[in-house]
């Protein structure tokens, strides 16, 4: 069945043209400028900028932060989404509000919160100094700030997906004798895998590119607490444009790879959601039976 179109052809062409011009000016052109500036003095200068000890330290710290923050947010996101989507309990709306909190709080404010709590003059500062524990202006503070600004991404991807799928398959698995772990591993996880991957990709991209909160808690110590975005800022402020754009190009490459994986995950998730919507009512029990080796 075809959908009637009321707009004139010139309207469609104008809107498409505006969209393409906008994408070129604000997406394609800046990306091209980053790589052009990074390679302006040749590949040798580009490689030397990346081999710089401070640059390598920033790259390493960025990956370490993501490797710690993303798995922790993965565990939290799955648990929070499971609780919100599968159960009714007192305080559910409050939990949902807390999950959304980092979306409404400025990253700079989030960083200042950690300084207030863990800084030298903060609530726990004297006790931490007494026990020689460093949080602010050290790697733990960077990881904590990154976790705060990124923890909604996975939960917010999974909550609507789990709510749309309902509880039928999990209940069928439990009736057939599956344990809680078996139900999660063989029933829930396969149904949410692409949404989970999608959320992890977004979380990882934000963790690697976070600037505001990390800038506040890092102290900008060269070779120790500078992540890639902070290192780019320092190099640019020192008029080392080639080195700054060289490191920035790595962030751009990560963004492009993230975009490709995100598109694939989104396409897969849409296909599975469409297939799920077309399942007959008796399908959930049939899907669980192979897990337990039983037949309907």
- Helical proportion, percent range: over 70%
Low-confidence stretches: 283-290, 292-296
**Please, how many helices?**
14
The total strand number stands at 0
User: Structural class, from helix and strand content?
Assistant: mainly alpha
- Molecular shape: globular
Account of the 3D structure:
With 296 residues, the chain is mainly alpha-helical. Helix content is 78%, strand content 0%. The chain contains 14 helices and no strands. The radius of gyration is 24 Å and the shape is globular.
Summarize this entry quickly.
The protein is mostly helical.
List keywords for this structure.
296 residues, disordered C terminus, mainly alpha
Write the layout of secondary structure elements.
Elements (H helix, E strand, L loop, with lengths): L8 H30 L4 H9 L1 H34 L5 H13 L2 H12 L6 H6 L8 H12 L1 H14 L2 H8 L4 H30 L2 H7 L9 H10 L3 H37 L5 H10 L4
Helix pairs in contact: 1-13, 2-13, 3-7, 3-8, 3-10, 3-12, 5-7, 5-11, 7-10, 7-11, 8-10, 9-10, 9-14, 10-13, 12-13
